[in-house]
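TASK: fixed-backbone design
INPUT:
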């Protein structure tokens, strides 16, 4: 994600469970912040920039919401991954 993207999309802090799949392996994590174009997922695992990811967000209002995207950065100090969605998302779907 470029600095331009960070200015362009508003991000909110949240704590929603997410189940996601990378290269056929399923993981669980917590969405730490979300924007219309992506999320930060707190999780542990061996991930690489450029890997495809499929996610299911748990939302009591919207039910389970499925999204796909790409890992665009991997945290070294803060354990987790930055994910950019293939399609822009309304953040209310994750945070409600």
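OUTPUT:
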């Amino acid at each position: 994600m470029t600095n331009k993207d960070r200015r362009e999309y508003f991000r909110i802090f949240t704590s929603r469970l997410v189940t996601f799949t990378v290269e056929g392996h399923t993981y669980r994590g917590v969405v730490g912040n979300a924007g219309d174009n992506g999320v930060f997922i707190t999780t542990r695992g061996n991930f690489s920039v450029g890997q495809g990811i499929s996610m299911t967000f748990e939302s009591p209002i919207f039910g389970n919401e499925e999204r796909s995207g790409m890992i665009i950065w991997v945290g070294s100090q803060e354990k987790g991954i930055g994910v950019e969605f293939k399609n822009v998302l309304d953040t209310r779907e994750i945070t409600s």
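COMMENT: Confidence is low (pLDDT under 50) at residues 3-7.
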